[in-house]
From TrEMBL:
Domain 4Fe-4S ferredoxin-type: residue ranges: 66-95
Record keyword 4Fe-4S present: yes
UniProt-listed SUPFAM superfamilies: 4Fe-4S ferredoxins (SSF54862)
Protein name as annotated: 4Fe-4S ferredoxin-type domain-containing protein
Pfam families, A to Z: Fer4_11
Organism: Labilibaculum manganireducens
PROSITE patterns, per database record: 4FE4S_FER_1 (PS00198), 4FE4S_FER_2 (PS51379)
TM region positions: 196-218, 224-243, 264-279, 285-304, 313-330, 336-351, 363-380
Protein origin, superkingdom: Bacteria
């Protein structure tokens, strides 16, 4: 841990936020499992996902060293870069409510010195220099390689250090279930207790977009005050998720690379144009607003492309695009579209639960039954009069369950997560 200490002392980081971490394959040092470590900080990737996806343009690349630099004064604390980076390099400082990360010790390098972590390592496990990196340099258990070209070479154990093998024949076997229970509880970057505001916000986006489209086609009443109230609540919900609320305007600065920027921009434009549509009753403005509404739905789903789902499936029944289409079909009273979306959502939901059960992950069977009922009951009651408001309430209740499970069943890719998976396979 000398590299961690050296980094912290040189850069003045707090004890809660270490820019460099030592990743352990066998945190318990259990004799039945192999033990090895590798030290990681920011890898200053050629195609750095933190810089590409930051909505506030809080990252830049130093031309001289190639280092990815984070600018605290531009950060809004949305934590999106912490989802995008598979190496867990950007870290949220809860005291300052903004992200910080390794800066490659640019000041030291510029003076001809080595980075603090390299200088502090007593065993020569870290070195610094220029070298052409190939795909073979990333073949190390637990290291994530998703094609973003990290500027790091990982040198495996030399052959003479792998033999002779020392086996502990008296070691007690340990199951993967027990191993997980012994390990320190992992704090997930994506969890329902953190993301409940996003559950409500994403459903608000789906509801407003479907409401506006149904109003445009003459099947739903929409007045300015109710629409404005729901819109303000939606904006307030998303603002609760960021650390620096006075910098919210920076959300839309990276339309070129960030789906989060596109989401906020398209949704804000949709709200403004819809308000103008209601006031002027202009159909053309309504169609433009609907186009931005559709794009905002697509953007919401694309924002979560970095998440790693426990079920391993590509599609999710709680996708906001599907939810918006379902709500629109109900408001438009298009029975065939309602049937198709119910079938699609129900099939995806059951498929996901079966996948979770197979890999022995908790899948909440009672809650699942409630969700299926909320999907089918409105359709069963379709012929009753005055059922539309009740149906929409039931549908929203089911969508809240489904969307909440989406966050509960998702996580981001990190070296620690990859090593835990490797423990199960070992």
């Amino acid at each position: 841990m000398a590299c961690v200490a050296g980094c912290s002392i040189t850069n003045g980081t707090s004890l809660q936020v270490n820019w460099r971490e030592v990743n352990c394959h066998n945190k318990l040092r259990h004799p039945s499992l192999p033990v090895f470590h590798f030290s990681l900080a920011c890898n200053h990737c050629e195609e750095a996902p933190c810089m590409k996806n930051c909505p506030a343009l809080a990252y830049s690349r130093d031309e001289k060293t190639g280092a990815i630099i984070h600018h605290a004064e531009a950060c809004i604390g949305c934590k999106y870069c912490t989802w995008a980076c598979p190496y867990d390099a950007p870290k949220l400082n809860k005291s300052t409510k903004i992200v910080e990360k390794c800066n490659f010790c640019v000041d030291r390098i510029s003076e001809g010195k080595r980075p603090a972590c390299v200088e502090a390592c007593p065993v020569g496990a870290l070195e610094f220099g220029q070298k052409e990196i190939t795909e073979e340099d990333y073949i190390t258990p637990g290291f994530v390689n998703i094609g973003i070209k990290p500027s790091i070479q990982l040198i495996p154990l030399r052959e003479e250090h792998t033999t002779p093998a020392i086996e502990n024949l008296d070691a007690v076997e340990i199951s993967s279930e027990k191993l997980e229970s012994y390990l320190p509880k992992k704090e997930s970057k994506v969890s329902l207790d953190k993301e409940w505001t996003l559950v409500l916000f994403t459903l608000a986006v789906a509801g407003l977009a479907s409401w506006q489209a149904a109003h445009l086609f003459g099947k739903a009443e929409m007045s300015l005050i109710p629409f404005a109230i729901v819109s303000v609540l939606a904006i307030a919900l998303t603002s609760l998720h960021i650390g620096k609320k006075l910098r919210m305007w920076r959300f839309i600065l990276n339309l070129k690379g960030s789906w989060l920027s596109r989401e906020i921009f398209s949704f804000s434009t949709f709200l403004g144009l819809t308000g103008l549509q209601i006031i002027t009753e202009n159909q053309m403005i309504g169609y433009v607003a609907m186009a931005f509404g559709i794009f905002s739905l697509i953007s919401v789903d694309m924002v979560y492309k970095f998440l790693k789902r426990r079920d391993g499936l590509v599609l999710h029944s709680g996708m906001v695009t599907l939810t918006a289409v379902l709500l629109f079909a109900w408001l438009q009273e298009v029975s065939i579209l309602v049937e198709l979306i119910i079938l699609a959502k129900g099939s995806l939901y059951v498929w996901r639960k079966i996948a979770l059960k197979k890999i022995e992950i908790r899948y909440f069977p009672i809650l699942s039954i409630v969700r299926i009922i909320c999907l089918l009951l409105p359709y069963i009651l379709l012929d009753l009069e005055m059922i539309l408001p009740i149906s929409l309430i039931i549908i929203f209740a089911g969508e809240i369950i489904d969307r909440s499970e989406f966050y509960h069943e998702s996580d981001v890719i990190t070296p620690e997560n990859e090593l835990r998976i490797l423990n199960y396979k070992t």
